[in-house]
Each structure stands twice: as structure tokens, then as C-alpha cells.
Amino acid sequence: MQSHLTRRVFRAIINNEPLHFSRCHRHQLLHTISPARVRPWVPVLHVPRRTLFAFSLNPTTETGEGQPATLSSEKGLQPMTDLKRSLEDKSRAPPNHTLTKAFQLFFATRVENPGIINLFQARLLSITWRHLKAQQEELDDREYQDVFSVENLERMLFVLSEAECLPESRATILKIARYAYAELCADHGFGPNSVSRPALLVYINLLSSNGCPAEARNTIIKFGGRFRGAKPSPWLTVMKGFAMDDDKRQLRNIVRDMEKYSLTFDQASHEELINLLIEQGQFKAVQTAYECPITGDFDPGMVNKKVVIVEPSVATKKAVVKYAILNSEIEWAGPIFHSLPREPLSEIVGITLLWEAAQGSNASSLAEKVKSWIASDPQVKDALTIADLNSVIQYANASQRPELAPGFVRLAEQWGLVPDQRTHLLQLESYIQAGAVEQTLEMLEQRVDIGLLPSENLPLCNKLIAMLCLSKQRNALFQRISSLLDPLFQDNVRLDPTTVAALTRMLLYRHDWEAISELLRPRLGTYDDEGKGVVRNVITDFILDSSQKDEDVWDVYELFKLAFPQTAVSVRTEIMCSFFERKRSDLAVLVFGHMRQAEDPRRRPKPDTYARCFQGIARNSDATNLELVHNMLKLDLEVNLNTRIQNGLMLAYAACEMPEKSMEIFRQILQSDEGPSQKTIGIFFKVCEKHHNGAQEAIKMLEKIKKVGLELDRRLFTGYIEAVAAQCEFDLATTGIDKMQAESGVPPTSTTIGLFYNAIPYQYWKDQVEEWAVQKYPELWAHLATMERSEHEDGLKFDGIDNEIWV
């Protein structure tokens, strides 16, 4: 049975590319059934159960019988994707009316919820714009209006400005914005530069927020007269951009530029800029902006009307100190805090309370301090608010000390304050940090409105879901987790990668591939490489989990292969080796083959991959796949044949009962520029175990090692013992063990005797080894006798004793 998990499906998952199925039901979107060559198909009885997604898609959004709904993030993408492919293969492009409508639909759909624009989508937009621009003279009025009308151009700028642009898509997004801006500034019969002020403000914000504040400043200078009275001032937007770039010199230049237009960067403007940056979560930018000089009013008494430099306002100082404390930058905040006016204390009691908590005061210490403050200034009691106490609880959570939060919460009753919803949310966060599931659930039931949680504190909602998914009680809490997720999915709320990773992990161990597909499809394409990596690592861990069934792991691997095409070769190699560990070399070699088929040369096998593949084939004695991979190596012009790869080939051919071939490869190593390594010699002894002239070859190699002065360590010497033992050379093996101390510098151990016993064939000879060891090395044998032995084709062997050579 063919797997529904096709490359087309996961291209959509990765890029938010639209899906179209002819007769594939929504709940059959991602059944990952392995191909027939891997395992036989077994019919599965579907038992109705509560899945992660309790709600159903609105029937009106269906695209036809049995077809999945098109996500809002997919609207308009399909025709643009078709255009991209037609340009690549030089085929007929979609009609202009189809492309103009798709382009217009993409932006119109995102006005209410701009969402995220990834690199794939940005490139489609850029390609489509350039194509339509080249076709501009051939468009009819309706087609022209869909793309080049002022309304659509301004809509483009708005969506691009409000959407979250992933770092890798930023340059392309800016390019598209410049296209729209240039079109708005062009002369369409009303003169050039007739662009509206709202569009200019949006464009300036887009440039400043995406690393181009200098270009935004030039736009302000070009259209200076258009911005009189604009709130917030576009100058502040540009300053925000330079602060995010940590460009102090340009910030000072902006202040001087503002003076040219009779504008001042006063305390109010400074406070507004700081608040903008705090909302952005940019601490370094806050530091940079805080240190920017502030100008006061012109001094009318001075002839030159020199500008007076003033300090930041008290409100700004308090906001900055609080933000610094919550970001563990207490040392930097110290001078600012101490510069606050000390009288009256009631004016700064809130920030002082937070400062004391940051200095290590616990709940009882704070209670004593507040008591003393009230004694000296009774107004402190009325000035203290629940918001001030909330800041202290927030600090406990921010500093990862949730054990302090309960004590701080109890201070509310002592000070006559009434906890608000913010207090309850902070208390909930402390329970989540502590992993206290029972208290978390109790808080959810009694104090926190679940329906308001996503809108009031989405980061906390993410932490809550992740904590429940990772708890030991996750199976019992599955219904609760599902009920939390339902409204988030219905409202298309964006989840953090860590939350999606936790959900994915839970669903993996529930073997709910269908739910995983519905979880990932609209989200994976909205994350940057780091975010995708968090989700990918969870899936990789499941694949590497040896406790899972081969069939389930292969199903998940197929999902992994198509969902994460950019995965490094090192990770894919670990997955390949995990299948060798499972004794499924057939699947391991399929993984290797997928690497060989990668379009990107960086994703193809490296010398280490080949070496580890041959190592795995040797452990599985898989002659069929050995020949297959060896042929791949011969055809691979990108990989240089080094000693490590040839070591792997030697080992693999020996394990597959082809010692002559191994000897041939050994001679090739001897003639190579790199030459043999110490591991090559160890593998040579392994080959001697099965070679028709193995005993003589092993003896000659031992003599050569002594002659050239090569270090004869325990592993090599034991390899020699195994080689002669495997050839039933009992006397040579026992003599070697007796001389081991003298020739290698290390005495024999119980492992040495055990390897001798395991290597020699036939039970008769094994009994001879036991009789000899009891007499010659009684203590070593006594230790061996406590170990388990299992039956093999050529007699008993000690379990857990091995001298495996790694290439």
C-alpha cells in the first residue's frame, strides 16, 4: 500500500504551501505506512477516540468532497508556486488573471491576522511581482487593480510591516516592500511622490524594524513635511531601529537632525522610545537608548539658544530599573536606581520593593522593610499597590526561584491588597516552573480563567501546555491538554516551537501520527531554523529510542525525512546507525540511500557516513547491502577513499564471510598514500579469524609489529589471540596469553580468557580452554564462571564479552 506521506504533503508542511487532494479525507492526511519492500501491510482497525483536535473544520471551508481546507496562510500560494515551477522548467506560466488574483488574495487574507511570512512565501511574492511587473502593459484594468492599485500597494506595506518575518526571509521582505514603495512614489498622472502619510509611516516602521534605519531616516528627510503631528513620531521609529543596532553615534545624529526641524528629543519622547523598546524585548537596545542625550527646552535667556541637556524622567528611570532587574542586569541598574529621588518614599515604593527583592530579601524581610517604611512615611501604605507586589512575584519567576513566589503572594493579605488576575497568572507561572502539576491544575480550576489565558499571557499558556505534555501524568491529563488546545487551534494562535515540540513528543509516544500531521502542517513553516530544530530533535529522539517498534520508528522516520530536508548529515548518520543497532540493516541502508539521493551536496554522505555504514553492515553480516553500498561508493566522485572507509570495507567483507576480499582491500591500504592505521591492524586480525591461511598471516603480522616497533596494546594483542584461536591453534593462543605481560606490557585478564574461549570453535576445544584456564589462571576463570553463557552454532559463548573493532 502506497504511503500517503508524500513529498508533496510535506512540502506543504514546511512552507505553508497549499495542498490539493482528489479523494483523501482529512483524517487520512498523514498515515505513514511503510512501503511493501520494508514490511508487509497489515490492515488497521480504527477505533473512535478523542484525538488532540476535538473540533472539526468548518464545512464551508472545505475545498471539495474529501479535500482538506485551505489554511489562511496558504491562500494565493498555489498559483504563485505554479509560476515558480514554470519559470524553472521553462513551461507555460499560469494566466495573468490567476496570478493577480492570487497575489491580491495573499495580502487581503492577512489584513486581520498578518501572521508569519517565511522565506518560501517571500520568494514566491518576489517572483510573482517581478513577473507581473514585466507583464504590466498586458494586464486589463481588473488585473492591474489587483496588484498595482494604491489600495493594494498600501495593503502590501501594512501586511509586510505587521507580519512577523523570519530572519532568513527579511531581505526578501524588504525587497518586496521597496517594490511597493517605488510603485507608490511613481508618477501615475498626479506627479511623483504622492504617496500617503499612513503608507510612509508603515514603510518607515518596516525599514527601521528590519535593520534599515538609515534608509528610513532618508525617507523622513525626503518627505519631512508630511509627518507634522504624527504619533508616534517617525523619528522615534528610526531611533528604535538604531538602538536595536546598538548604534549610539547615529542616535546622537538623529537628535541633531530633529533640531533642524524644530523638534526636540525631550523627556516625553525619551520615555516613549524606552517603552517601545521594552515592548520589543530588546534589553541591549534599551540600554543604548537610555544613554542617548535628552534635550530640554531652549533657554530664552541665552543669545545662541543653546539646548539644555536633561536627565531621563522618574517614570523612565523606574521603567528601566524594573526591566533591568527582570533581565538579571542588576549591576547596570544600580546607578539609575540610586539616582531616583529618595523623598518622598511613597513615590518610589514600588521600585524600591522590587530592588530589595533583587538584593536577596525574602517575604519576611520585605514585610519588615515595608513596616519600617510605613513608620517613617505613613503614605507608603496607601502608595503600595498590588501591581508593585506583582512585580516582586514576577522577579521570583524571572530569576527561576519559584519557591519564593508563595511567600510573596501571602504578603498581599498582610498589606491589605487584593490579588488580581495578574497575581494569579504569576502564581500559576511559579507552579509551572516548579513542575507542580497538582497545584497548577488547582489554580486553573479555581483562580485562572482559561479562556482569557491566551490573550492575557500567551507565553505562559505555552509554558503550561509544555509542562503538562512533559509531565509523568501526561496520559491522564490528555483530555485536559486537548481542551486547552482547542480554542488555540480554532483561533490559529501561534505556539512556541518548544510547545509544539512537547506536544509532538507526547503524540509520538501515543503513536498518533495523524494528530502530529495536523499539528505540524500549519506551523512548521512558521519557524526559523532554530525553531524547526527544536521540533526535529524530539522526532529524532523518538527514532533513536530503542524501546519503540521497528515499524513505528520507520513510520516516523518517513515523516522526519520529508519534513526536515535540511537536516545535517551527522544527524541522519545517527539515525542510520540506530537501525543497524536494531539489526535492521535493510532500513539502515535505505536511510543511507536517501542521503545519497539528496539534491543538496551538503546533505550527501561524507567519508564518516560510509565508514559507519560499513561498520553497521559488518555487525549485521549483510552481504547483499554490502555490495550495494560498495557500488555506491565506487560511483561517488565526491568522497575520497581514505583508510577509515577501507577499514570499514575490510571489516564488512570479513563479517560477510569474504576474507579474501578483505585481504585484497588490506593490500590496497598498504599501497595508499595514507597507509594503514592501528585500527587497520586490529581489523586485519579479525580477517585472519576467517581466512584460510589466517593463523600464519596473524603470526607474520605480530612479528612485523614487533619489528617496526609499533605499539602492541591490549586490544591488538587480544586480536592476535582471537585470530589464532579461531583457527583452532590452541597452543599458539595459550602461549601468547602466557607471554602477554612480556610482549605487550599488560597482563591477561578474565576478558582475555573469555575472548579466547568465545573465539575458538567447537565445544571440544572450548572445554580444553576451560580445563587449561582452571589450572593456569584459576582466579580469572573463577570470575568468568560467574558470567552467563549462551548456546551458539559453534558451541557456548560468554555473554557480554566482545572485542569489537570500530573503524
TrEMBL record:
Chain residue ranges for the region called Disordered: 59-78
Q: Does the keyword Repeat apply?
A: yes
Chain ranges passing through the membrane: none
Record keywords: Repeat
Q: Tell me the first and last residues of the signal peptide.
A: none
Checking InterPro entries in the record gives: TPR-like_helical_dom_sf
Out of the domains of life, which is the source? Eukaryota
Biased composition (Polar residues) is annotated at 59-75
**Can you say what this protein is called?**
Pentacotripeptide-repeat region of PRORP domain-containing protein
> What is the source species?
Penicillium cinerascens
